[in-house]
Write a structure and sequence with these properties.
The complex is a heterodimer of chains A (about 210) and B (about 260).
Chain A (H helix, E strand, L loop, with lengths): L2 H7 L1 H33 L3 H16 L2 H8 L10 H25 L3 H9 L4 H31 L12 H10 L2 H29 L3
Helix pairs in contact in A: 1-9, 2-3, 2-5, 2-7, 2-9, 3-5, 4-5, 5-7, 6-7, 7-9, 8-9
Chain B lengths: L10 E9 L7 E10 L4 E6 L5 H8 L7 E6 L2 E2 L5 H6 L1 E5 L10 H5 L1 H5 L4 H14 L4 H4 L9 H13 L5 E5 L7 H18 L2 E6 L2 H7 L2 E6 L2 E7 H4 L5 H11 L7
Parallel strand pairs in B: 3-8, 3-9, 6-7, 7-8
Antiparallel strand pairs in B: 1-2, 1-4, 4-5, 9-10
Helix pairs in contact in B: 5-7
Classes of the chains: A mainly alpha (about 210), B alpha/beta (about 260).
Chain lengths: ~210, ~260
Amino acid sequence: MSAWTFLVEHRGEIFVTTAEHLALVLVAMLIAILIGVPLGLLIVHRPVLRTIAVGVANVFQTIPSLALFGFLIPMPFIGGIGKRTAIVALVLYALLPILRNTYVGLTEIDPAVLESAEAMGMTRSQILFRVRLPLASAFILAGIRTATIITIGVATIAAAIGAGGLGTFIFRGVALVSNGLLLAGAIPAALLALAADFLLGIIERRLRVS
Amino acid sequence: MAAPEADGNSIEFQDVSVRAGTSAMREIVSDVTLRIAGGETLVLLGRSGSGKTSLLKLINGLLIPSKGKILVKQKATTDWDRIELRRGIGYVIQEAGLFPHFTVAENVGLVPWLEGWPRPQIEARVGEMLRLVGLAPDEFGARRPRELSGGQRQRVGVARALAGDPPILLMDEPFGALDPVTRAELQREFRALAKQLRKTIVFVTHDLREALLLASRIVLLKAGRIVASAPRDEFLQLEHEEVRAFGASLSNQAGEPA
């Protein structure tokens, strides 16, 4: 049976698994954004916290993803087998690009702009919400874009701890030496990544003010 | 001459010193005592690093003195609510510091908007201010700062500083980054504007020509200290080597001290 006929015959199953994969990515990204952006704001004026936060986020990125999933399994509350553990691992991976870009975006703003904002009598929160965040938004979105693409890829490995998603096809494909199964996982994952890159790229360009 | 009530808008430095940073014990401003009367245009002249910008930032509380105090409208800057103090002081800097994500109209209307003016009143004020600095509101209001020339950006910067009708205006080399022709044009227009507005203006520059054109009084700084102070017409007669050094710059073609 050719790979192509396999894909056509199993399209229903592939579609459901892709949706499952996407859900995993979306939940993980949402949590990562909710942690990463506020943390990025917090570390702008706190050098010690910044070193710790970026350092920790960096360490998580260097752990091979399969190992990170493995480490999490015996953890209480956040560990175990299944989706919850997978989401925790994905969040840890997505955190660094979001955190770093939020921080860089907030600090790369023209000092003359911030100085005028202060001199015009804007309060700290007005400067944050009306000046800093809008001017950093393209940067922050670039971080979210990078993190999303990473997460779509890493999420395929989540199947190893029973979280489902497109990795299920890939692991089965490797075990059975089946190109059809491998492609059933790889092609939708690649398409998801390309689509995310494209769509978030459009938003990012619209936010950018040069 | 300044109107009598304008004298309430005076600025006074009382034996002010500022240290740079917490670890560096270097003084960037040393023992400055200076009274700026309401309605006068005082130019702070000096080389780079002479402390003139620091003096300016002490007035609107962007810098806090390590010794002495600064009275703005007879009240110490440390006693002012900092936001209230700054809303009453216009500030124009070299790169204009316009918000790139705001339109020209939004930039100019910033302080009125912060002060909670009703929208029609803000719009009227923005139009008035843009015309005052020689920009047609219909043509420029909807543009972004990046769509303007350097000279136009500086004009918008001046309009923004004046929009809240502050009695005090601080200007930090506002025309420094412009080409010579545009700079001369803006200097002439600003001199006329300053006469018309009768605000207390503190103007920082390293260009003696500009100081002589705009000032009612010139204060010369060197290494954080006031070394000379005189009404404009008497300034060049002062016997001080730094005055002579600046005076010599007038004969240079560039018109800037070496």
